[in-house]
Amino acid sequence: MDIKQLRALLTIAETGSVTKAATLLHIVQPAVSRQLALLEEDVGTELFSRGRYGMKLTEAGEIFVEYARRALAELDRARSEIQPAEGVSGVVTIGLLPSTCDLLASELVAAVASAHPAVRLRLSMGYTGHLQNWLELGEVDAALLYDPKPSPTMRVQPLLEEKLWVVGRPEAGFRADSPLPLKQVTDGPLILPNSPHGIRSLVEQACAAAGIDMSIVAETNAMSVQKGLVLGGLGVTILPSIAIVDDVARGLLSAAPLSDEGLQRKIVLALPNTRRVAAAVACVVDILVAVMNEAVRSGKWTTARWLANESEPPYTKRSVNLDEALPE
Length: 328
What we know:
Elements: H1 3-15, H2 18-25, H3 29-43, E1 48-51, E2 54-57, H4 59-81, E3 90-96, H5 98-115, E4 119-125, H6 128-137, E5 142-146, E6 154-168, H7 182-185, E7 190-193, H8 198-210, E8 216-220, H9 223-231, E9 236-240, H10 245-249, E10 254-257, E11 264-272, H11 279-297, E12 304-306, H12 322-325
Parallel strand pairs: 3-4, 3-5, 7-8, 7-9
Antiparallel strand pairs: 1-2, 5-11, 6-9, 6-10, 6-11, 6-12
Helix pairs in contact: 1-2, 1-3, 1-4, 2-3, 5-11
């Protein structure tokens, strides 16, 4: 078993085709088939079922692919720790919450490309539960999480806190300068994330404490669907301001902050406790934190309060100047 065989396995699994895998790996098709055959001989079982519609992982193949992906990720991290003299390099995978992607992704990618051109950045989007699991499995190197459950496998640093907002169609007349109590919002139909999403848990806890009954008309695990249902006039929803700032600016939605105590979410940076943080990861995390700080400072991240200076950060030994990191 060697690295070439594992890369062949993962590429076939991703493409569903030996031919497509050969193209991506820049080798001839018989060589890919040979690598797969040797791997299957080594593990003692078929990893794919071959059919007229392509290659499909067997149950054994699905299990083995998970381990192969982690093994190659660890090797990539090892390479990134042994840095060449001319600078930082390697593959870095950052997990972002869906609500933060639109604001952070472009700035982060541009700043990393400018400051560290040899770093290949991967962005994975998911909710807190998924991201925490990926971090523990080694599928992401660092992640932004919403108030995660404590875990010995990771260390966290609070970065910011932001209020939750009620969101409706423009005719609902919600305004940023007119906070509303949760009780007034729950009088009508609500569109909320599925349990156990963090915002759903916050809203349920607040309603239980205040003795408020909710009328939930729909639940979804996709923020785009959540906003789409609101646009369709099916009810109102509750989201952080970062998730709807563009929609409100364009007049598609109206929104108002919720006035109840406790209806804020805290976003933290999570890093693994079970493995070393490579130099490339540390550099990208520094830039990510700087991008977030600038978004809060400039007012782009509406109603957010920066927390990271309140305790010693575990992620950085230096500050990042975004004016220098971002391209002209």
